[in-house]
C-alpha cells in the first residue's frame, strides 16, 4: 500500500535525522512521528480529493441510481455523502493501522532503526 512504501522511503531518505532524534533520547515512535505524518498525509490526499469532488464534478453510482429511482435529490446527495465519508473513514483507519505496523517493524525493541534497503524498480 502507498502509505507503507512512503514511510519506508521517508525513513530511508531521512535516516540521519531519525538517528539523530534517537541519539537525543527520543523513543522510536516519537523519532518517526514527522515521517509517519508525512506518509499518512500523502496516502490520504487522493481519497480526500475524491470525496471533495463528489457531487460537484462526479455523480457517483449510488446518488445517480437513487435520483433515477425517483428519490428526492437532496436525500440522494445525503446518502452519497454518507457513503463517501464511510469510505474515507475506512481508508484513514486502514492507512493508520498499516503505517503503525510498518513503523513497528522498522525499529528494534531497543529503539534502533533497522537497515532499509532500496529495492530495484520500486518493488
Provide a descriptive summary of the structure in words.
This protein is mainly alpha-helical. It has one domain. Helices cover 72% and strands 0% of the residues. Helix 1 (2-13) packs across helix 5 (73-106) and helix 2 packs across helix 3 (28-53). The longest helix is centred in the C-terminal third of the chain and has 34 residues, at 73-106. The N and C termini lie close together (11 Å).
What would you say about this model in short?
The chain has helices at 2-13, 15-23, 28-53, 61-68, 73-106. It is mainly alpha-helical and 123 residues long.
The H-and-E topology, N to C, reads as HHHHH
Class from secondary-structure proportions:
mainly alpha
Q: What is the multimeric organization of the chains shown?
A: single chain
- Extract low-pLDDT stretches: none
Output the keywords.
single chain, 123 residues, mainly alpha, 5 helices
Topology:
Layout (H helix, E strand, L loop, with lengths): L1 H12 L1 H9 L4 H26 L7 H8 L4 H34 L17
Helix pairs in contact: 1-3, 1-5, 2-3, 3-5, 4-5
